[in-house]
Amino acid sequence: MKYMLLINAASADASDQCSVEEWMVYDKQIQETGIVVASESLADLTTATTVRVGPDGARAVTTDGPFAETREVFGGFYVVDVPDLDVALDWAARCPGARGGGSVVVRPIADFGQ
Known about the structure:
By secondary structure, the protein is of the alpha+beta class. It has 2 helices and 6 strands.
């Protein structure tokens, strides 16, 4: 079964951030298992653009960056193919982004029978 691990890292001003070395160790471990279907880190939050479309669907409005009032920043993801939710949760718990002020959201990938 495929699951997405959505990594919400603590904001840049958090004092309990993980080191690059911790991320490299985790990434090497999870990649070596062969369960990773896809993974990416996102560019800095300042490069984001938000698109909103009004109720009439006629006009798109873009603004620089997200404007959510949160202490977490969506930093990247892994899609893993594992036997069950328990294994996905175990890998999420090992993720450096889950510590301190961060979190990892685990969601099953929808299968529409295609």
